[in-house]
């Protein structure tokens, strides 16, 4: 009988619980003995395991966050940390590990496969910057959350004829920013992939004002070179010339909370179940994701340490339609 452990790692994402549930129940269905690891790689190193059966993962499909907990664990990036984690797995006779998480987590998963462990990754991050999947668990719900906030901000922005700088998550990726800018009808967008200086944004806002727009929403990814702080200090210095009444809203971790929507529950369920099936089909060292609507396996060697590039056509679309 296979003994399989599952953990969630990195930034939590809505739908991680649905993925844990699918992994555990599919595993049991296929006669595996299932274990959870608390708090990601931190718990793996510390040996914080718990047996999981179908009833233990009841009542979580609709909950955001992760019942197992998660962590950022610098120690796991070291050879000693990884050896300690492998020793904990070996001691419990666990022959496979399923890692639900984003880029960094899948790099960690790859490191374990290189040291002989059987590991499968499940794509989950609100940033949607993983290679090997069109969409990751949590992205769609985070987008909905950010979009709803932008809709609300537009109401007050319009009433006061103000400019709102809205910071969304995405340390290295402008995907969230690009999609919510399009879906929220933003007047301007600032992403890490394109270094737009504050003057360029000011010009866009002035042009939009001249076209008759009384207010504006600027979506700014947190990782952009000229982020909300740089923009607001530029606009403050140029206040007389620009005549903009400016406000800042940082959506921050609000985007990570919240109940997963139907898309993320379905995606998490499909990917979680597919990870168990892949395991039983003797797959090893792959990321389970979704491409063109179908389950896709991508070697972790191709995923680790890399990020999916932003589709620059999204930026063109956002800018082109903000007329
Ligand atoms: P995410 O998985 O959401 O991208 P992080 O980048 O914080 O989040 O990664 C989560 C964890 O994965 C890190 O805290 C670390 O323990 C592990 N990790 C990240 N990068 C590596 C790496 N190159 N090698 C080994 N482990 C890594
Ligand atoms: O990786 C997902 C993410 O939400 C990024 O968008 C963001 O930069 C980061 O996590 C925030 O991390 P933390 O929760 O550790 O502050």
Question: What brief labels describe this structure?
Answer:
323 residues, alpha/beta, Rossmann fold, 2 domains, 7-stranded mixed β-sheet, 4-stranded parallel β-sheet, 12 helices, elongated, binds adenosine-5'-diphosphate, binds 6-O-phosphono-beta-D-fructofuranose
Explained architecture:
With 323 residues, this protein is α/β, with parallel strands linked by helices. It folds into two domains: 3-138 and 260-303, Rossmann fold, CATH 3.40.50.450; 140-256, Phosphofructokinase domain (Rossmann fold), CATH 3.40.50.460. It contains twelve helices and eleven strands. The protein has helices at 16-29, 40-46, 79-91, 103-114, 139-160, 175-183, 198-210, 228-237, 239-242, 262-280, 300-303, 312-321; strands at 3-9, 33-37, 49-51, 96-101, 119-123, 163-168, 188-190, 216-221, 246-250, 286-291, 294-299. Helix 4 links the parallel strand 4 (96-101) and strand 5. The longest helix has 22 residues, at 139-160. The radius of gyration is 22 Å and the shape is elongated. The termini are far apart. The model has no long low-confidence stretch (mean pLDDT 96). Residues 10-11, 72, 102, 125-127, 169-171, 222, 256 line the site of 6-O-phosphono-beta-D-fructofuranose. Adenosine-5'-diphosphate binds at residues 9-11, 41, 72-73, 76-77, 101-105, 107-108, 111, 125.
């Amino acid at each position: 009988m296979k003994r399989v452990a599952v953990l969630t790692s990195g930034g939590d994402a809505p739908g991680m619980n649905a993925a844990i549930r699918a992994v555990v129940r599919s595993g049991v269905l296929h006669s595996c003995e299932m274990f959870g690891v608390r708090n990601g790689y931190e718990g793996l190193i510390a040996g914080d395991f718990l047996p999981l059966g179908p009833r233990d993962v009841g009542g979580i499909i609709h909950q955001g966050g992760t019942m197992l907990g998660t962590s950022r664990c610098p120690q796991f990036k070291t050879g000693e940390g990884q050896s300690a984690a492998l020793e904990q797995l070996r001691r419990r006779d666990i022959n496979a590990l399923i890692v639900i998480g984003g880029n960094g987590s899948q790099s960690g998963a790859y490191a374990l496969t290189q040291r002989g462990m059987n590991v499968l990754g499940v794509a989950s991050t609100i940033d949607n910057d993983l290679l090997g999947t069109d969409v990751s668990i949590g992205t769609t719900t985070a987008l909905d959350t950010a979009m709803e906030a932008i809709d609300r901000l537009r109401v007050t922005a319009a009433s006061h004829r103000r400019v709102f700088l809205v910071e969304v998550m995405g340390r290295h990726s402008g995907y969230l920013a690009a999609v919510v800018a399009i879906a929220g009808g933003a007047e301007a967008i600032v992403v890490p992939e394109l270094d737009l200086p504050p003057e360029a944004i000011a010009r866009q806002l002035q042009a939009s004002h001249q076209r008759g727009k009384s207010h504006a929403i600027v979506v700014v990814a947190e990782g952009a070179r000229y982020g909300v702080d740089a923009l607001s200090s530029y606009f403050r210095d140029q206040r007389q010339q620009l005549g903009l009444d400016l406000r800042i809203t940082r959506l921050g971790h609000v985007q990570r909370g919240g109940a997963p929507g139907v898309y993320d529950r379905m995606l998490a369920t499909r990917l979680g179940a597919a990870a168990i099936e892949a395991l039983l089909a003797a797959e090893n060292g792959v990321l389970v994701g979704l491409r063109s609507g179908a389950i896709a396996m991508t070697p972790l060697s191709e995923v680790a340490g890399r990020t999916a590039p932003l589709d620059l056509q999204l930026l063109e679309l956002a800018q082109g339609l903000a007329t």
